[in-house]
Protein 1
Amino acid sequence: MLIDRTTKEYTLSDGSVWTALLLANELNITKSGARYRLKQSSDFDDVMRKNNQNLGRPPNDRIVSNNKKFVSISKQPKAVRADILTRNAYDPMSKLFLKMS
């Protein structure tokens, strides 16, 4: 049984009409990413922004950046920092956890 589905068209603030597939091909993003942008806003600038462009929110300093594999201890929450500082590196379980990471 075949279901006939029509492609949904979105009209942006500048009057242009886009589908998710057209937008995905134009911006070189996934079809689901294009569909998400079209559902979230009809503003032309928001929809057509570059991939991974910051939307004005300040960056989160706890997010791992520059391909580091850890977050420095000074940026850890107080409870995690206290737990790290009381860790015994000579404990057999601690050695096992350090080997696993």
Protein 2
Amino acid sequence: MDNAAGSTVTPKGRRYRIGPMSQAPNDTRSAADKARDTAGIVGNLKHEGYVPTPEAEAVHKQVARGEITTEEAIKIFRDRALNQDAELTARQRRPERA
């Protein structure tokens, strides 16, 4: 039987008993490795069209400080995206004349 790392499954009568799982391993990467990985992630996001704005960075910092939850941040970003989409749609319907 294929089990998660660190867990044990032993038969007990007709049922299986699942033993305790070990803790997840600590992140042993150096600060430089973590920074390089973060830069790679941000680079990938920028490649996909993400443009970091001061407002977005402020929301991310609020989440990091625990001032708002991740769900609240997602709602903020979703509302902003809907507003931007509505603005773009409105501009396409009535193009501005110079």
Protein 3
Amino acid sequence: MASAKRVKLHYALCESALPENMGADHFGEFYIAKAEQSVWFVAKNGTVVSLCDFLLNAEPVAPPRHGRDGKDAEPAPKGERGPAGIGRDGRDGEDSKIPGPPGRDGFSIVGPAGRDGRDAPSIDELLAASRHDMARLRAEYAEIKLMLQGFCDINKKAGDYITWLKERAARRAAVAEGK
């Protein structure tokens, strides 16, 4: 019986975030570009190719790039000095001779006493509130657990689909070599 190879499935936000070349050690890994909903495969030589194009008998290509980093330019020569400003230079002014109003003495002001605060809740009220919160958290946890199980089921079915795609691609390659 043949041993099952574990399939690695990676998710990327968009095609331009996919690597162009991964290296031969990543052969057989799949990438899914969520924005374009396309599937990409790492070939034996490490090249990342589009399975969508491959299955449609189009020329499989590497992920698109939106340009490459360029070389920095040399610094430009320093420019000439600009014209002098308009007007004449002023001199510093002197302090004002008009006195301002006196400041307030914050330390000597004592206000009236504030109102009495409300009483703290009783222990029974606190216990009932915490029990209610715990019940709500348990219900939320059960819902999250159910959603996680759904995601696991989806990934399991995706692995079966990718295995089927690989087998189909191998059959097409065998037919193409036979011609």
